[in-house]
Amino acid sequence: MSSIVARLIPAWLRQYQLSALPTDLVAGIVVGVLVIPQSLGYAVLAGLPPVYGLYAAIVPVLVYAWLGSSNVQAVGPVAITAIMTASGLLPYAEQGTEQYALMASLLALMVGALLWVAGRLKLGWIMQFISRGVSAGFVSGAAVLIFVSQLKYLTDIPVTGNSLIGYLSTATLCQPAASINLSYWCDRICAIGCQSLCK
Can you tell me the distance from the alpha carbon of 20 to that of 10, in angstroms, rounded to the nearest whole number? Predict the structure, then answer.
């Protein structure tokens, strides 16, 4: 019976030193303060209600803490998966609908099952064939795509799409002068000026 209980307790927890508890608590609070707004933003980036970001930030961490083998592994939502979810589901459902949320949940389960099978088959060696330049280019491209997709909230220019070309082709940069909202831009300029003065 004791061997069954011992197997249910994670290996890292059995070797945990209580002297590290105060610093781990501070680190946990700091990470929690950072992860909550970050996960809300990633959910919006994926086209889901913000509460789904909290689900994606809390549930994987709890599961990995029990099943995982490392006590320093970072687990949770990231910007690239949010973009890939949005671009993959956009042709099939409208963002913000219940069908879109169900499809995103099914996609997450399918990817999780695929990763579990790949882990069981020890297919990690395949990543050796992907060069550092390719992965760096992928991350840089995702950063540019995030930046362009969020410009609509900063500039009030209506852009839509699921790729960089789609965003740029729908941008109406040549708006007539009468349609420019001067109070909106005055607020933005004042906010940026105040932030730069406070630094």
Answer: 17
**DSSP category for residue 60:** H
Distance CA 16, CA 71 (A): 10
Question: Which pTM value belongs to this model?
Answer: 0.67
What letters, b where the CB count within 10 A reaches 16 and e where it falls short, cover 78-110?
Answer: bbbbbbbbbbebbeebeeeeeebbebbeebbee
Q: What is the C-alpha separation between 42 and 49, in angstroms, rounded?
A: 10
Residue 172 pLDDT class (50, 70, 90 cuts)? low
Quick: pLDDT tens for 74-112: 787 888 888 888 888 988 988 888 999 999 999 999 998
Residue 117: band (very low, low, confident or very high) from pLDDT cuts 50, 70, 90: very high
d(CA 84, CA 108): 11
Between CA 189 and CA 167 the distance in angstroms is 24
Q: Say if residues 137 and 155 touch (Cβ distance below 8 Å).
A: no
